Automatic annotation (TrEMBL):
InterPro entries attached to this UniProt entry: MPAB/Lcp_cat_dom
Residue ranges of domain ER-bound oxygenase mpaB/mpaB'/Rubber oxygenase catalytic in the record: 15-250
EC number: 1.-.-.-
Entry protein name: Oxygenase MpaB family protein
Keyword Oxidoreductase among record annotations: yes
One term of GO molecular function: oxidoreductase activity
Length: 292
C-alpha cells in the first residue's frame, strides 16, 4: 500500500482539481441538479435521513469522495462496495407512475455521477483554476473510474465536456420541479445549524455559501427552480467564486487538508523518492566475485 497511488495519482487532472478547497461550494450545485430528476429525488426522500442529519450526510459524502480520489486502490474499491451494497438494498416508488424501482438503476447512478463530477470541474473552472479544454476532457475521462466503483459501465458514462453537454440535452426533458426538489432547495438554503450555531454569523456565512452554489447552476436549472436565469447571474457567480477561491488560498493549506489527502501526498513523495534513488549495481559490476 505504501506505493499505491490509488485510482488517479499525482499526474492526474483529478488530483489537481480536488486539491483546491473551492470545490466545497460545488456541493449545493450538485445536490440541486440531482434533485431535478424525479426518480432520483423520490429515492432520496423515501430513503434518506438528510433532514435529520444533514451535516453527517455531508461529511460522509466528503469522506467518500476523498477516499475515491486520494485513497489507495483497496480503500477506493472498499468504499465503492459499501455504496453499492447500500444502493442495492434501497427501493422507492415513482410518485408519477406508482412503479417501484431500485436505487441502483443505471439511469439514476449515471445522473448522480454526471451532475457531481460536472459540478466539481465547472466550479473549479469558474473560480479560476485555469484548466484547458483538453484537461477538462481528461478529468471527465478519469472520472469514469469513479463511475465504475458504483456499478456503472464506464463506457456508458460521458467522458468529455461535449458528451456531458449531449447527456444533459438528452436528459432535460425528464427533469421537473417536483415538490421534493423545492423542499431540497428550501432546506439547503436554511438547514439546522450544528452545535448551537443557528443564531451566529455562521448562519449568514452559510446563506452566502448556499446562494453562491445556487448561482453556479446552469441557467436552465435555475429556471426550473423559478430563479433568475439571466447571464448577469452567471457573471456575478463567476466573479464571486473567483474572489472566494483567492481568499481561501490565503489561509494555511492545513485548514483544508484531511488525513486522506495527507496520506496520498506522503505516498506520492515516497514513490518519487524511490524512483529517483540510485539503483544498486550488480555484484558483477562492483567486482564482488564469489569464490569457493
Amino acid at each position: 500500500m505504501a506505493g499505491d497511488l490509488g485510482l488517479f495519482g499525482p499526474e492526474s487532472i483529478t488530483w489537481r482539481v480536488h486539491a483546491d478547497p473551492i470545490l466545497l461550494i460545488s456541493a449545493p450545485r450538485a445536490l440541486l441538479l440531482q434533485a431535478l430528476h424525479p426518480r432520483a429525488i423520490a429515492g432520496v426522500m423515501q430513503n434518506s435521513d438528510f433532514k435529520r442529519d444533514p451535516w453527517g450526510r455531508l461529511q460522509r459524502t466528503i469522506t467518500y469522495v476523498a477516499t475515491v480520489v486520494y485513497g489507495t486502490t483497496a480503500q477506493a474499491e472498499a468504499a465503492g462496495r459499501h455504496v453499492r451494497a447500500i444502493h442495492a438494498a434501497m427501493t422507492a416508488v415513482d410518485p408519477a407512475t406508482g412503479e417501484r424501482f431500485r436505487a441502483d438503476e443505471p439511469e439514476l447512478l449515471r445522473w448522480v455521477h454526471v451532475t457531481e463530477v460536472d459540478s466539481f470541474v465547472t466550479t473549479a473552472q469558474r473560480a479560476g483554476l485555469g484548466l484547458t479544454a483538453d484537461e477538462v476532457d481528461r478529468y471527465y475521462t478519469e472520472q469514469r473510474r469513479a463511475a465504475a466503483l458504483v456499478g456503472l459501465d464506464p463506457e456508458s458514462v460521458p467522458g468529455t465536456a461535449a458528451e456531458v453537454a449531449e447527456y444533459y440535452a438528452a436528459t432535460r426533458p425528464q427533469l421537473a420541479t417536483t415538490p421534493g426538489a423545492m423542499e431540497v432547495l428550501r432546506f439547503l438554503v436554511s438547514p439546522p445549524m450544528p452545535y448551537g450555531l443557528g443564531l451566529t454569523p455562521v448562519r449568514f456565512a452559510w446563506w452566502s455559501f448556499s446562494a453562491l452554489g445556487v448561482s453556479l447552476l446552469p441557467r436552465w436549472a435555475r429556471r426550473l427552480y423559478l430563479l433568475p436565469g439571466l447571464p448577469t447571474t452567471d457573471l456575478s457567480a463567476t466573479a464571486s467564486a473567483y474572489a472566494l477561491r483567492h481568499a481561501m488560498r490565503a489561509l494555511p493549506r492545513r485548514v483544508f487538508e484531511g488525513p486522506l489527502y495527507r496520506s496520498a501526498m506522503a505516498r506520492a513523495e515516497r514513490s518519487v523518492a524511490r524512483a529517483d534513488a540510485p539503483r544498486p549495481r550488480s555484484a558483477t559490476a562492483r567486482g564482488d566475485w564469489l569464490t569457493g
